Amino acid sequence: MTPFVYFLILSYIPTVIGLSGFFGAYGVNGWKAYVPFYNILILLKIIKRPWWWILLFLVPTVSFIMWWVMLYQLYESFGKKNPLEKFIGALLWFVYLPYLGYGKDLKYSGPVDYTKVKRTWMAEWVDAGLFAVVAATIIRTFFIEAFTIPTSSLEKSLMVGDYLFVSKLSYGAKVPNTPLSFPFTHHTLFLTKDTKSYLEWIKLPYLRLPGFGKIKNYDYVVFNYPDGDTVALGAQNQSYYELCREFGWSYVNSPDKINIWTGEPFGKVTSRPADKRENYVKRCMAIPGDELLIKKSIFYINGKASYIAQTMQHHYIVRTKDGLGFSPKVLDKFDITEQLDNRTVPGALVVTLPYDKVEDFKKLPDIESMIPLIGDSGIYDSRIFPHSPNFKWNVDNFGPLVIPKKGMTVKLDTSNIVLYNRIITAYEGNTLEIKGSKIVINGIPVDSYTFKMGYYFMIGDNRHNSADSRYWGFVPEDHIVGKPVFIWMSWKNGFMGKARWDRFFTFVHSDGLSRSYLLHFLAIVAIMFGYNYFKNKRKEKPQNKI
After folding, report:
1. Which of 481, 420, 492 is nearest to 142 (CA)?
2. Helix (H, G, I), strand (E, B) or coil at 109
3. Confidence (pLDDT) at 353
């Protein structure tokens, strides 16, 4: 039996049965309690609260709080004054609602006028705490969210230890797919390893609110990890699908089997909805409708060489005159984080350098030769999307590939279906079968497909040390979270390690500072101050005396 069926039996059915009794005592037909969302509007009418409160049910965490608040006030509207009784009734509503709903003494007396009630200090603190949680959750969901750079895939551009504010307004905030979740968590509860912080009893379809603009080529973008729909809980920072290709599907799906990369068991395999997948940040190289080609590590968008960020990093094969590595002083000066022995060229090193420091590095007196480390074309790398020998692509030679656009139609055959099978099934919810030379979608043989969403191709600036779209393919538009706009602090070697003072309170841009990001930030601040201003003005209004 699925969790949703348990929810219907243990919660929803007794809830609506109980509400129908309250509705009848109020003078409304009891059958209206059985109509989802409409019953919430009736409930708001009974407790005399504005209809737009129903919109708060779309916000994670806030939905739980609002439901408890509304039940608390519903009990008060029917004469229940004992605080403990109301509190327990709000927590165990699926038991208490039907118990009260058909009681003989159920009479409507109207909601409490809190302006005429002297409240205890505890009630004031509870109200303040609930308001803080609700306000912070709304801001975090629809306006701006704090984010930490977890990996080095954008090293020298956005660095491990950068603490960012991510604007949800830039591209429009997503309405959460799973509104029932614990406050201030992403997918796992605090102090646990694998306990989900959300419930999947209610799942909402993809909906994005209007934003300030659209994703453009070379923008930094925060998004939910596309391969994160399935996760081995013992290896959450690794792609489940890459693990399966490496070790075999049955091996990874055995919880006790050991991941030889980490020495830990793979653990239980679970699924996650789109909004609860890991947050990644990359540079958007190609937008819907673009043709992407990578040739000898150079990106071409629609036939033109792409923009090169000064902070973009690349591997170089370096020979020194003495055959030794570089001193810590040199490594620190050029901020070199990788210095490895080259397995194919004896006596040489592989050094990772940003584009803007290459020429100065070449001038060091110990340098004998220095060439970019670039793979040959036509060499198949099984780690690279679409993981098929039909496409002999690697990190330095990839494509050409047209990025799917909403409404665009492509011809399908058994050789190119590997490019689109995850789009058709995992992202757009269809069934797909290959029967000989025929492709069957939703039970119907087809030779083409029309995309329902737009897709993006995301790349890390640390080109040879980045798990990005070259490995797992397209990023659907419903996975887009927002735009990183502001670094408020940055630490090297972990929080409270060595401070990078030059990065504190700086704005994020593809290659510098942009005032448009400042406008985003100021807009959010204005909303917050505006709310407080009108709230205080409302308090200053004289109350009408009877």
Report:
1. 481
2. coil
3. 87
User: What beta strand segments (E) does 158-267 contain?
Assistant: 162-167, 220-224, 230-232, 258-259, 264-265
Tell me how far apart the alpha carbons of residues 201 and 6 are, in angstroms, rounded to a whole number. Answer: 9
pLDDT score recorded for residue 123: 61
Q: How many CA atoms lie within 13 A of 433 on its CB side?
A: 7
Rounded to whole angstroms, how far apart are CA atoms 432 and 412? 12
Single-letter amino acid, residue 502: D
pLDDT of residue 546: 36
pLDDT of residue 544: 43
Strands 279-286 and 409-411: unpaired
Residue 353, H or E segment: strand 349-354
Q: Would you say the C-alpha torsion 26, 28, 30, 35 has a positive or negative sign?
A: negative
Confirm if 100 and 24 have CB atoms less than 8 A apart.
Answer: no
Sign, CA torsion 359/363/364/368: positive
What is 298-372's CATH number? 3.30.70
| Beta-strand relationship, 258-259 and 506-507 | unpaired
Cα dist. 327→17, 331, 334, 367, 371 in Å? 75, 6, 11, 13, 20
Quote the CA–CA distance of 189 and 286 in Å, as a whole number. Answer: 35
Residue 309: predicted pLDDT: 81
DSSP 400-468: EEEPP-TT-EEE--TTTHHHHHHIIIIIT---EEEETTEEEETTEEESEEE-SS-EEEEE-SBTTS--S
pLDDT value of position 510: 61
Q: The tokens of 354 are what? A: 């940003």
Burial of 93 (0-12, 13-18, 19+ CB in 10 A): buried
Residue 498's φ and ψ, nearest 5 degrees, are -90, 125
Beta bridge partners, 517, equal: none
Which residues of the chain are in CATH 3.30.70 domains?
A: 298-372
Instruction: Give the whole-angstrom CA distance, residue 150 versus residue 188.
Output: 16
Give the chain's residues under pLDDT 50: 1-4, 512-517, 519-520, 543-546
Q: Across the chain, how many H-helices and E-strands are there?
A: 14, 26
> Tokens for 30?
């009891």
CB 302 within 8 A of CB 326: no
**Coil vs helix vs strand at 19:** helix
| Phi, psi torsion values for 455, nearest 5 degrees | -135, 160
DSSP 252-289: HTSTTSEETTTTEE---EEE--GGGSPEEEEEEEE-TT
- pLDDT for 4 equals 45
Whether residue 253 contacts residue 241, with contact meaning beta carbons closer than 8 Å, is answered with: no
495: amino acid identity, one letter: F
Residue with tokens 């407790």: 47
Region of 255 please: left (phi>0), alpha (psi -120 to 50) or beta. Answer: alpha
Question: What does the buried/exposed string (b/e) look like for 404-432 if buried means 16 or more CB atoms within 10 Å of the residue's CB?
Answer: beeeeeeebeeebbbbbbbbbebbbeeeb
Q: Report the pLDDT value the prediction gives residue 83, as an integer from 0 to 100.
A: 76
From residue 9, give the alpha-carbon distance in Å to each of 3, 90, 95, 192, 257.
Answer: 10, 18, 12, 28, 37
